[in-house]
Amino acid sequence: MEHSVRPQALPRLFSRWRQLALPSLFLLGVIYYEELFLKLFCFRSLSVQGAVFTFLLTIPQAALLGLLCGGVSPRRGRVLLPVCTAVISLWIGSQAVYYHLFKTFLTLFSLTKMAMVAGAFGDMAVGELLVNWFPILMMAAPVVLSLLLRNKLIGQAQASGLRLKWAAMAAAVQLGAMGVLLLCGGGVLSLRYIYYQTATPELEVQNFGVLTQTQLELRRVFFGIQPAVGDDGPDGPALPVGGDLSLPPQPAGEEGYHTLPIDFAALMEGETDKNLLLAHQWFSQRDPTPENRWTGYFKGKNLIWIVAEGFSTLAMDPQRTPTLWQLSHEGFVFENFYTPLWGVSTSDGEYVTTTGLIPKSGVWSYSLSAENEMPFALGRQFRKEGYRTMAFHDYLYNYYDRDKSHPNMGYEYYALGQGLELEQVWPPSDLEMMEQIVPMFASEEQFMVYCLTVSGHLNYTLEENAMSARHWDAVKDLPYSEPVKCYLACQMELELAVRNLVEQLEAAGKLEDTVIVLSADHYPYGLTDEEYSELLGHPVDPVFELYENTLILWNSAMEASPVTVEKYCSSLDVMPTLSNLFGLEYDSRLIMGSDILSGDPPLVIFANYSFINDVGYYNSALDLFTRWDGREPDPEQVASMVDEVQNRVAYSAVILDYDYYRIALDALSRE
Question: What residues contact 344, with CB distance under 8 A and at least 6 apart?
Answer without folding.
Answer: 104, 107, 110, 359, 364, 365, 366, 400
